[in-house]
Design goal:
By secondary structure, the protein is mainly α. It contains 11 helices and 2 strands. Helix 9 packs antiparallel against helix 10 and helix 9 runs parallel beside helix 11.
């Protein structure tokens, strides 16, 4: 649509390049103009609808604005996280099978095949997204392009750091006159050693990830639930108590006043705090476990759901215990 194209052209150049690259790495056939335009247009529409719905339910104008902006932010985050997570999934799969693909190419070369035929015959379906890239590169060599230039095309549609570094080392080795089969075997061995080292590091830092998950998903909402019930109880008691004791010198000793915090404001504050905690907690877990914040995006919905569930369960249990205590006091 023309409207999507206009919206897309109004965005910064860096954003457009990012969307185009991520959609390519995620193997989306959708044009970047349509995807980004659709995301921004319907995000703004959702923002406006949420704002008027908030006014319809008698929320203040400031709360309605916050709800509208939050709806826009959540919608945009979801729309941009979809290609990001798919691209990361393709990259992780490529990292897993990359040593096997390099060894297969090396074996074909050692069997007497030329490099272009070795690459073409090594494009197996079990290699997933890497199969298409290897086949396209092999076809480029058949059209007269050198093997060094052709292999540079392999990592263009796969956002894998290991693949890019392997191709860079491979091209550099070939340009210096290295044996292609030996280079492929060496790269495969290095990647396997790196994977083993990552698994060892992953097992060591697992305790840190568990601690962050417990703190963000259980500890924080548990404390928020107890403290919110305590504030609510003190507010009710403070509103009823009018005791004031004064010394003979005129100095006040003790006063009870109602707490000037509404329950609605407290619930908004706790919900936003839990959302922020879940967001950054998920990013930290992804950074610790896999070395990148993007890997933690999948933990954010889980953390948010668990934290809100623990918070409301804590409040319900506290209220039930309080009611039981009142009942026992009346019996006595």
């Amino acid at each position: 649509m023309r409207l999507y194209k206009i919206i897309y052209r109004m965005t910064p150049m860096g954003y457009r390049k990012w969307v185009e690259y991520k959609l390519t790495c995620a193997d989306f056939s959708t044009h970047p103009e349509d995807y980004a335009g659709f995301s921004i247009f319907y995000g703004l529409a959702l923002c406006i609808v949420t704002f008027f719905v908030g006014l319809l339910f008698d929320f203040s104008i400031y709360v309605s604005i916050v709800l509208g902006i939050s709806a826009f932010a959540v919608f945009e985050a979801i729309m941009h996280a979809i290609p990001l997570m798919i691209a990361d999934s393709r990259a992780n799969f490529t990292d897993e099978i990359l040593p096997d693909a390099l060894r297969l190419i090396s074996s074909n070369i050692r069997s007497g095949l030329t490099p272009d035929k070795a690459f073409l015959l090594s494009a197996r379906p079990e290699f997933g997204p890497l199969e298409t890239q290897i086949r396209d590169s092999a076809k480029l060599t058949l059209s007269g392009i050198s093997i060094e230039e052709a292999v540079k095309n392999i990592p263009k549609k796969i956002d894998s750091r290991a693949l890019r570094r392997s191709i860079d080392l491979l091209v550099e080795g070939m340009s210096r006159g290295g044996n292609l089969a030996n280079l492929l075997d060496g790269l495969a061995n290095d990647i396997r050693q790196t994977k083993i080292l990552k698994k060892e590091v992953h097992s060591i830092v697992m305790m840190y990830a568990i601690f962050i998950f417990f703190a963000a998903g259980i500890g924080a909402p548990l404390l928020y639930g107890i403290s919110s019930f305590l504030v609510q109880t003190m507010q009710q008691m403070g509103g009823k108590a009018t005791i004031e004791q004064t010394f003979t010198g005129g100095m006040k000793f003790m006063t009870f006043q109602a707490i000037g915090i509404s329950e609605e404001f407290l619930m908004y504050y706790i919900s936003i705090s839990l959302g922020i905690t879940a967001f950054f907690g998920g990013l930290l877990i992804g950074l610790i476990q896999e070395g990148t914040e993007k890997a933690g995006l999948k933990y954010i919905p889980l953390l948010l759901m668990i934290s809100l569930t623990v918070f409301f369960l804590t409040r319900i249990m506290e209220i039930e215990n309080f009611i039981k205590q009142l009942g026992n006091a009346h019996v006595w």
